[in-house]
Amino acid sequence: MLRVAVLVSGRGSNLQALIDAVAAKELAVDIVVVGSNKVAAEGLRRAEAAGIATFALDPAGYADRAGYDREFFERLGEYAPDLVVLAGFMRVIDPAALAPWIGRVINIHPSLLPKYAGLKTHARALAAGDARHGASVHYVTAELDGGPVIAQVDLAIEPGDTPDSLATRLLPLEHRLLRQCVAWIADGKVALAGERVHVDGVARDVPPLVV
To answer: What is a GO molecular function of this protein (predicted)?
Structure first.
């Protein structure tokens, strides 16, 4: 069974979606640890309630990002995860710390990448007058939100939408998208080979759309 680690910085709603899917036997993985850069992150409490091991390291105690990330991923490695899921983990990972993990780390991002890497994606989509918005799951590389996309989900932007209303409507679709992508990886359907996502062993240039 695929050993999964989940990294969070906040409330952990995507983490909870994975926990619930495992409990319902809809997702055949073992969530072995939840880690955070925030000691008070609500996601850690969700993990503890589900009986999942947790750890947190505060970046304030480190001289630089490289040193923090090196120790964070050394600690993560003690749990021997096969897959690391960034589910609202609000840090840019140092390339040297990330390098040994390439192909084993995915992230969920609230935009239709390559649009709107970084923060405030809902507000940026609205400001641009986009007709549709969505979320992406991608493999993590040294480029911020720039790794190969596995899959996306989208929804129509409605008249009167605000960043908050858009985020609220998108969230359940994010949950479904993340569960699906983790299931594909667990089943061996999706993998990263070089710089391209392979689906059933075949390189795919256009991300599949989960609807």
So the answer is: phosphoribosylglycinamide formyltransferase activity
